[in-house]
Specification:
Distance between the termini: 89 Å
Low-confidence stretches: 489-497, 520-529
Helix content: 25-40%
Structural class: alpha/beta
Shape: globular
Number of helices: 17
Number of domains: 3
CATH class of the largest domain: Alpha Beta
CATH architecture of the largest domain: 3-Layer(aba) Sandwich
Largest sheet: 7 strands, mixed
Number of strands: 25
Radius of gyration: 29 Å
Strand order of the largest sheet: 15-16-17-14-13-19-20
Mean pLDDT: 93
Strand content: 15-25%
Amino acid sequence: MKRYALRINGQPVAPQGGDWFPSQNPYTGSAWAEIPRGDARDVDAAVRAAHAALTTGPWAELTATQRGALMRKLGDLIARDAARLAATEVRDNGKLLAEMAGQLNYIPQYFYYFGGLADKIQGATLPLDKKGYFAYTRHEPVGVVAAITPWNSPLLLLTWKIAPALAAGCTVVVKPSEFTSASTLELAELFDEAGFPPGVFNVVTGFGAEVGTPLVEHPLVAKVSFTGSDATGRLINQQAAALLKHTSMELGGKSPYIVFEDADLDQAVFGAISGIFAASGQTCIAGSRLLVQKSIHDTFVERLVAVARTAKMGDPMDPDTQVGPVTTPPQYEKVLAYIDIARAEGATAVLGGARGTAPGCGQGWFVEPTIFTDVDNTMRIAQEEVFGPVLCVIPFTDEADALRIANDVRFGLASAVWTQDIGRAIRMSERLQSGTVWVNTYRAVSFMAPFGGYKDSGLGRENGIDAVRECKKAGNTSCKVAVRYDTCGAYATSRDYTGVGWGSTESEAKANALDACGKGCKVAVSDCQ
């Protein structure tokens, strides 16, 4: 069984407590690797290494352009090793190889994009209201960034955090999910190969209380970037706020997927299935609330069930598999519990609603693709994040009704509108309370587009130039370079002869002004003011 090491200051390091814990394959249910169990001592070593790299090490001496070049080199190495890293992710979190390979082949683009942005965040000169000053702004790295990542898409969501942080000149300490740490530890090796100075990128694995809390509360950490549940995010935000740290929180979602009667129904059906079942529902942007206009409700549900029924569950490494296992045992039991809750509240399972027992499921943690109808938006299945392959269908009458239902939830991460009416699409996008609105598509994320939630779905933005700015702090420099003094033009025969003088002090500037005035003025210098 493979045994991994922590990565601190550019070196593989054994945990100071001397303990490791197993990482389980969700498809087989068996352990396949040993992950180091870090603690507060490892966190302190990693944060101090990151702080030293930020303040005194070679990283601090690099220009922004040089940082960008290192990031592009890292992107090349990830592209080279994409297949290997994707296989590690599948083994560790059970997602489909097709999805993980797609993510790993896309991740290099993030490092190319943010590497290019590294020297594009510019300051400005300021026309101060005071004479003799030269003032300008500068944008400096916010400091050491603590990145706490989830188990559902480990490297992609890590990249959303570290690419803008590195472009901003920050250094990073990562605490990956204890369920899916292996790929992050493998990525750390590529930082060394790319030529990043020691201490720029550090990884401490372990559990929340033993690693996460000491990392958030470490005095040398300036910013905490977290992706995960809203409950954990609230706790981390409280801890960070008490120490006046910057935070970025990408939390849960209960995204409405709205289909109007004029939509391309075939495309909308496939989009709905992809939005909830492709990742076994384990994504914060899962389209878990399907809102269908009443006039097409029955027809749409019939088509939806017919297509979803054909989905093949099985080995996520098999390219023919369409639905993989749930990643963790606790999440597996949680999803099954929500299915029971939905039934108890009166929802009807028109598809699935049980443990996955198909021959290809083996010993894995599978849940059948599940579709509920007869759902009211007040039910728990419509209000709470399930994070599994469970879809609830809710009918609506018109635009106003769709907006009422869509916005009547405490989350606001993403939403979708399916219609051929561009006016309706724009009206809906302006009124939907979500950070991202997709029209006639779903889950189309880009490194260029800011991503983040409204309401309980989080704080801050990842991706796009806004993400770099969130890893910067603005500073100002004001230099008193000279004093200007103008003699009074009222005593001169022509304002052209008014004396102007510069000096390091007002008296010096006045003397120079009077001298200049005396050389061309037709009145006595003593009459000038």
